[in-house]
Amino acid sequence: MNADMNKYLEKAEVLIEALPYIQRFNRRIIVVKYGGSAMVDETLKKRVIQDVTLLKLVGFKPIIVHGGGKEISRWVNKVGMEPKFINGLRVTDEDTMEIVEMVLNKVNKSLVQLVQELGVKAVGVSGKDGGMLTVEKKYSDGKDIGFVGEITDVNPKVLFDLLEKDFLPIVCPIGMDKDFKTYNINADDAACAIAKAVNAEKLAFLTDIEGVYKDPSDPSTLISELAIDEAHQLIEDGFIGGGMLPKLNNCIDAIDNGVSRVHIMDGRIPHCLLLEIFTNRGIGTAILSKEEGRYYNGE
Fold first, then answer.
1. CB of 288 within 8 A of CB of 259?
2. pLDDT band at 159 (very low <50, low <70, confident <90, very high)
3. What is the DSSP string of 173-221?
């Protein structure tokens, strides 16, 4: 058999490997949290959007929740303001909030444009629309960090309406408090809260790391699949630190609230979303609820 034929057979095998996942998640909701370097690099951005569009076309119901931290910092600098952070959280005064909302809406519509270019109908909304995300003021260790919101309630009606009409919703993480003041929301928190509210089958985080490591200094300790009790144990044993700790806690919270599988993957790897969702081994870390069977058995 010639090399060309082998190449085509390999492609066919990849499609066959994807088949059970396509069957299993047909008509199921998947929330994709999109952030990090994959939002800055135009080539990666296109590939992520291609992935999400493909998920939609094979029968999934994706919802994108995006951040925009790097772009916000760029614009804050552009207008001559100094970005301020307390405990890793952006201090958002009134002027900064104005820039945050403008930038996030700009990012939102650029993602809508990319999806539309691929022939799929997308609608960009913020957490303000339809009262989707209600928040209260968030404090960091008792410190006032301005207009940063903690989500208190999610009304997913607008998302269900869009999904039912065959649109791909793209959500920017801005909400209002009970007095209708505008707040910036951490995109991880927003994705997690939305995944719970829409009863998502999957929640996928695109990040700047490959997944969860038992030892962050040793790449060979990447964990492919992690049961929920194992995730708790890793935290208790002190293996998880830095920015991964709140992310893993968000994952656990999502699974405790009905999400079956949460994926953490490196958005800098081209087509990481397809590789993680449609292959047995995957490339990131999948965190599973107690009811979920493992796909990968270490072979």
1. no
2. very high
3. -EEE-TT--EEE--HHHHHHHHHHHTT-SEEEEEESS-S-BSSTT-GGG
